[in-house]
Specification:
258 residues, 9 helices, four-stranded mixed beta sheet
């Protein structure tokens, strides 16, 4: 028997159905019904200093080895590169401490940038006619800021241990949004605390613009219903993605996302 010819429309419908099925499966796999929220210590903000210090320590170790060892370097005037490395460490560490100590909101950041640019422009303009910057540099005492390679390595290890310890703490003390509940895991042997997620108010804040630009972090404020005070989670890394995932999980419920 001869097979009946298949019409072109039937072929097109078959192809469309075959292409749609994998898309539906992938969407089901991508859907997340559980999300973990971790609030990190402010020590996590010292990560730039950790990375820079480790790089500087390795760099100085290599340069010292090429110049005949640290004993020869210490007793010669060949410490110019060590002074440059020390200045870099001093500047990065100072800026990192300022970042932790102060909150740079949008207005303050804009004001600081404008003032900095204006002051530099004025100083350069005045220096063109007076040359006072060269006079200050010439009369400035010969200050050398160089540290031993052991300091950079040990300081990196110390920061690494502290930052890892704070990260390990978040593995046991964290929040989970699952289903229609907000669950607080308080730690090993401490237990959990459950809050209703229905009609929960969720608000994200950026108290420090620079921290948000570097770490994509911010403050997450959760206000479950029938609770006396809101739950404030600071230094939430990737806060924008967290809120987006939270919105997907709670999309079936009435949640006020702010």
């Amino acid at each position: 028997m001869e097979e009946e010819p298949v019409s072109e429309s039937a072929k097109i419908e078959t192809i469309i159905i075959q292409k749609q099925l994998p898309q539906e499966d992938s969407e089901d796999k991508e859907y997340k019904d559980r999300m973990v929220i971790r609030s990190f210590s402010s020590m996590i903000l010292l990560s730039p200093t950790l990375i820079v210090t480790l790089i500087l320590g390795i760099t100085q170790l290599i340069l010292n080895d090429r110049r005949g060892g640290i004993e020869n370097v210490a007793h010669t005037v060949n410490t110019g590169y060590m002074n440059i490395i020390g200045v870099i460490f001093f500047v990065v560490f100072t800026l990192n401490l300022v970042l932790i100590a102060f909150d740079f909101d949008r207005m303050l950041t804009v004001v600081i940038v404008i003032l900095t640019v204006a002051i530099i422009a004025i100083l350069l303009l005045v220096n063109v006619y007076t040359g006072f910057i060269q006079k200050i540099i010439a009369n400035f005492p010969d200050i050398k800021i160089y540290l031993s390679t052991q300091f950079y390595i040990l300081f990196s290890i110390l920061l690494f241990i502290i930052i890892i310890s704070t990260w390990i703490r978040t593995l046991f003390n964290y929040y989970v949004i699952e289903g229609n509940e907000l669950i607080h895991h308080k730690g090993l042997g401490v237990g959990v605390e459950r809050y209703p997620a229905t009609n929960m108010s969720v608000k994200k804040e950026y108290p420090d613009l620079i921290e948000h630009l570097i770490f994509r972090s911010g403050t997450l404020v959760l206000a479950p219903p029938k609770t006396e005070r809101a739950i404030v989670l600071r230094n939430v890394i990737g806060i924008d993605k967290k809120v987006k995932s939270m919105n997907e999980i709670l999309s079936r419920m009435k949640v006020d996302i702010g």
